[in-house]
């Protein structure tokens, strides 16, 4: 391998490591970010505002407060140095009244303490710009041992300077040595930020509401329910999406109505012919051939009803609150009337908004499928804050795991694998899943604790 190939391999490996690291960092960042549009929009407005305020505050602190405080502190220290020069250069009276008078004109209070040691250093705040600048200016302009207290009295600063024969104690106004308008600046900064955030929250809430209404309307339509009060609102883009949803909903409903009307016509024509067959068979009298033909006509009538039910779906029915406990009890009674052992249990609030006849047909198909291939049936319902779950268990032969999705295909039957004597159109499970999905849910098949098949219907509430 040449040197160029080795270099390219190293570069490729390094780029792959960087790409994986970026991917991990991106996934971690996504896990920290909120998932809602409202929260993300607030972050988009809050983060730049906080960054801007932070930068402005930092620049203001560094360029304004530091400069102003440094100049004010330097001016106070210059006045103190001038007083020391006056005290050392010119003769003083006994009580040093001349120095005090000059200090008073400089807005300073001066007195003299007996010569001795300075007090021990007092506690200093964690961040004190005044303490730092005063210490620097006193060491630079006076060059004598000093002691300062910027913590004690709130409106005064105490400075002690050691002279040859005494200690000069000076009290200066804090406002004369420090730019003390920081509270006003912070108040205005926080006040304006709060007002802007309140306006942003109110504005975003009004902008998010139409999107939430559109999502609720789409979810209701997916569950087969109506959203009567929905209309396009909000920004132009949101209104456009809402209008597109309404047009799509109208097209789907129009297609369903056309299919239902067509099926009603086909059903009427075919039932007319079957009724004619039954009438003709009734006029022919009795006989083995006539009984076989009647059986074929009855089977054809049942197959026709199954085909039409599968093609029609649950169109035209309105979702309404339904007591699932009573619905499951009716299914148990039907199973027991046909000679099967059935049990029912329900947990949670029983009232659920579904299309009653269609959902009962969905569960009835599952119960009849269990009754066809088993002797004992167990029906269990559970409702929580999100889903209604109904399981139908039987003790029959079950369905192989690799065929549990195939059985939902229309006209597919597993009679060879389960029971040769029982027939059907192969539409029962297909109709049940179609109804469950029209409610926004689905049907899953699995192993039953009773040894047979478990069919689980789960729809959102």
Output mean pLDDT.
81
Oligomer category = single chain
Residues in helix, %: 55-70%
Order of helices and strands, N to C?
Answer: HHHEHEEEHHHHEHEEHEEHHEE
Question: How many helices does DSSP assign?
Answer: 12
Radius of gyration: 44 Å
- Biggest sheet: strands, sense, closure? 5 strands, mixed
Question: What order do the strands of the largest sheet run in, or round the barrel if closed?
Answer: 6-8-9-11-10
Q: What structural class should be given to the helix and strand makeup?
A: alpha+beta
Shape: rod-shaped
Strand content: 15-25%
Tell me how many strands there are: 11
- The stretches of 5 or more residues where confidence is low (pLDDT under 50) are 416-423
Distance between the termini: 65 Å
Structure description:
The protein has twelve helices and eleven strands. By secondary structure, the protein is an alpha+beta fold. The strands form three sheets. Strands 6-8-9-11-10 form a five-stranded mixed β-sheet, covered by helices on one side. It has a four-stranded antiparallel β-sheet with strand order 1-4-3-2. Helix 2 packs antiparallel against helix 6 and helix 6 (182-222) runs parallel beside helix 7. The longest helix is centred in the N-terminal third of the chain and has 53 residues, at 37-89. It is rod-shaped, with a radius of gyration of 44 Å.
